[in-house]
Write a structure and sequence with these properties.
The complex is a heterodimer of chains A (about 110) and B (about 120). In chain A, about 0% of the residues lie in helices and about 45% in strands. Chain A is built from no helices and 9 strands. Chain A has a 5-stranded mixed sheet, with no helix packed on it. In chain A, strands 2-7-6-5 form a 4-stranded antiparallel sheet, with no helix packed on it. By secondary structure, chain B is mostly beta strands. Chain B is about 0% helix and about 50% strand. In chain B, strands 2, 4, 5, 6, 9, 10 and 11 form a 7-stranded mixed sheet that branches. Chain B has a 4-stranded antiparallel sheet with strand order 1-3-8-7, with no helix packed on it. Classes of the chains: A mainly beta (about 110), B mainly beta (about 120).
Chain lengths: ~110, ~120
């Protein structure tokens, strides 16, 4: 899987939008961008994924640049329960392809 | 989303004993399951890929004779840590796929293993 680069940590005020960047400059044409998060002492939770178009679901929005070398996960109205480590992962769109976790971004939502 | 369960959620055992961890997909069939290990303040590290009806594929550095994986059905994979030692203490997490529509992996809640 292509390597991703994320900031180690970020803070966000409760109620404000949290924008988490991810660089994946070596992504190949058939690889998707996936986002997961892990709340302390729990298993990772799927958030969203995309190929080249922007995506939105009930949890977040994913903005992928036109050259696909970077993306941003947006939590529109962060709450304290969104405090977690957020992982940006690129992988082929096949269930047999494992997920390779990098260091992720530790998001701290503050009151 | 789909649900993956793990049992037990936490286990404490003496050094030298074996511990079995179960991973179940509750509402879908999983042809592939993955086992991860996570040490404190570190990211998840893939240990092995478990395929229903065939032998597991282990990542480099993971001892297959120590971490026995059995994927006997489309809803159950087990990881047995044999002759556990304190350095095996970790958070063990499984994931199951394929997902319902988007091929995302669904993760279990994890099992905290503490070896005394």
């Amino acid at each position: 899987d292509a390597k991703t680069t994320q900031p180690t940590s970020m803070d966000c005020a409760e109620g404000r939008a949290a924008n988490l960047p991810c660089n994946h400059s070596t992504i190949s044409g058939n690889e998707y961008v996936y986002w997961y998060r892990q709340i302390h002492s729990q298993g990772p939770q799927y958030i969203i994924h995309g190929l080249k178009n922007n995506e939105t679901n009930e949890m977040a929005s994913l903005i992928i640049t036109e050259d696909r070398k970077s993306s941003t996960l947006i939590l529109p109205h962060a709450t304290l329960r969104d405090t977690a480590v957020y992982y940006c992962i690129v992988r082929g769109h096949n269930a047999g392809n494992m997920l390779t976790f990098g260091g992720g971004t530790r998001l701290m939502v503050k009151p | 989303g789909a649900v993956v369960s793990q049992h037990p959620s936490r286990v404490i055992c003496k050094s030298g004993t074996s511990v079995k961890i179960e991973c179940r997909s509750l509402d879908f069939q999983a042809t592939t399951m993955f086992w991860y290990r996570q040490f404190p303040k570190q990211s998840l590290m893939l240990m092995a890929t478990s395929n229903e009806g065939s032998k597991a594929t282990y990542e480099q550095g993971v001892e297959k004779d120590k971490f026995l994986i059995n994927h006997a059905s489309l809803t159950l994979s087990t990881l047995t840590v044999t002759s556990a030692h304190p350095e095996d203490s970790s958070f063990y997490i499984c994931s199951a796929g394929p997902g319902l529509a988007n091929n995302e992996q669904f993760f279990g809640p994890g099992t905290r293993l503490t070896v005394l």
